[in-house]
Amino acid sequence: MDRYTDAVMNTFGTPGRVLVRGQGAHLWDADGKEYTDLLAGIAVNCLGHAHPAIVEAVSTQISTLGHVSNFFTTPAQVRLAEELISLTFPGRPAHDSRVFLANSGTEANEAAFKIARRHGGAGRPRVLALQDAFHGRTMGALALTHKAAYREPFEPLPGGVEFIPAGDTEALRSALGPDVAALIVEPVQGEAGVRELPAGYLEAARELTRTAGALLIIDEVQTGMGRSGAWMAHHLLAPGVVPDVVTLAKGLGGGIPIGAVVATGEAASLLGPGQHGTTFGGNPVACAAALAVIDTIRGQDLLGRVERLGSAWARELLAVDGVDEVRGRGLLIGVGLATGLPPAGEIAATLAQYGFIVNAPRPDTIRLAPPFILSDDDASAFTTTLSEVLAQALSEKAGS
Ligand SMILES: *Cc1c(COP(=O)(O)O)cnc(C)c1O
Fold first, then answer.
1. Which of 243, 210, 255 has the alpha carbon at shortest distance from 48?
2. Which reaction does this enzyme catalyse, per its entry (predicted)?
3. Which residue from 42, 46, 106 has its CB within 8 A of the most atoms of ligand 1, so it is best to mutate?
4. Which atom of ligand 1 is nearest to the CA of 106?
5. Rounded distance, CA 171 to CA 384, Å?
6. Separation of 136 CA from ligand 1 center, angstroms?
């Protein structure tokens, strides 16, 4: 830990543990202590740790062809692009859609932002984003991110972005106009504490953006690739809605860094030769990992598993004393703590002592985003420990 502090920039605060090994939904720290991983590297390790399908795909690919520049393509890259088009836009003619492969969520959103800038050009300088939105930390994605503490130290950011209240159709209607290039939304706001957009909002957003000639960009970086129990959370929340652009990352590579922009219709051809690029994006090792993730989710019906475990677990969690609310979909769960309890960060630290890794995106919320392969027993063991930890905190409060 001292060596970390001396060598690594202090952007993340002090790390909770030094982790040395993972297997399935379990992790071990440098002292040999075991944890159940209910965070999965923030919704990333969807197949858990050291999954044989990812190990095999990555090992085979890197021992065959590890990297080429984007002057060339590889079979893995082409197959992944085709898969992402059919997973993101089922029922659309495949030739209407195109993919740009990047390395992270923020990069996927940078590319989406550039697509928005190309849409309508100087005649559409405005981009709408939602209050409490999180879209990433690079300058463009940061401009789309709402939290002042993240933004203000880095201003001036790319201009033209306006924030409107999340889920408010009337606010969207009055903000939209012929000078708006795009609206970007997360179907479930993850960093804001797992807050789902209200029913009907995405449908209204699609209708209103279409009327105004603006693009609808859905950021599925955290919610996509099965985490909600469907390939994309917007498929579940708003089945008829076809966005122009969808961004993906986190779970896509199952732990190998990769991001993607999937666009359809006019938006699919707005970035032309020379207008965007990346050295590593579309790297065959990352693509092979993503293909292994997709094949495994499909082959083992993990979407069904996420849906069933997620809804049963949410019911269990809601019955815990001290839990006020359980939000989210599938295995992206926000556990809302009752007022008067210690801050969620303290509860998360106590839970780590008891061997469960979770995080606290807000002072009143514990976030669970475990691997899809989490067992029923591990989920129930957490519920039991959480109820003990909250009972203890409630009795301390009553005694003080
Ligand atoms: C995590 C996240 C991002 C940023 O992804 P990085 O890979 O950390 O750059 C963007 N959007 C959403 C919704 C996220 O949850």
1. 255
2. N(2)-acetyl-L-ornithine + 2-oxoglutarate = N-acetyl-L-glutamate 5-semialdehyde + L-glutamate
3. 106
4. 9
5. 42
6. 5
Catalytic residues: 134, 219, 250
Cα 226 to averaged position of ligand 1 atoms, centre (Å): 16
Query: Binding site residues for N(2)-acetyl-L-ornithine, as ranges?
Result: 137, 278
For ligand 1, atom 5, the nearest C-alpha belongs to 105
The two tokens of residue 110 are: 């940078």
Please choose, from the candidates 230, 228, 217, the residue with its C-alpha nearest in 3D space to the C-alpha of residue 185: 217
* Torsion on CA atoms 372, 147, 364, 259, rounded to nearest 10: 0
Q: What is the pLDDT along the chain (400 residues), one digit of tens a residue?
A: 899 999 999 999 989 899 999 999 999 999 999 999 999 999 999 999 999 999 999 999 999 999 999 999 999 999 999 999 999 999 898 899 999 999 999 999 999 999 999 998 899 999 999 999 999 999 999 999 999 999 999 999 999 999 999 999 999 999 999 999 999 999 999 999 999 999 999 999 999 999 999 999 999 999 999 999 999 999 999 999 999 999 999 999 999 999 999 999 999 999 999 999 999 999 999 999 999 999 999 999 999 999 999 999 999 999 999 999 999 999 999 999 999 999 999 999 999 999 999 999 999 999 999 999 999 999 999 999 999 999 999 999 888 6
Contact 234, 203 (CB under 8 A): no
Ligand 1 atom 15, closest CA: 222
92 Cβ partners below 8 Å, 6+ apart? 242, 264
What spacing in Å lies between the alpha carbon of 57 and ligand 1's midpoint?
25
Place of tokens 């990769």: 258
Neighbours of 169 (CB within 10 A): 16
Distance of alpha carbon 289 from alpha carbon 304, whole angstroms: 21
Measured from the CA of 190, which atom of ligand 1 is nearest?
A: 15
What's the CA gap between 156 and 52, in Å, rounded? 46
Q: Pairing state of beta strands 332-337 and 323-329?
A: antiparallel
Which residue type is seen at 379?
Answer: A
| Ligand 1 centroid from CA 352, angstroms | 24
Instruction: Note if the pTM is more than 0.90.
Output: yes
Residue 249, ligand 1, Cβ within 6 A = yes
**Distance, CA of 36 to chain centre:** 20
Task: Tell which atom from ligand 1 comes closest to the C-alpha of 259.
Answer: 7
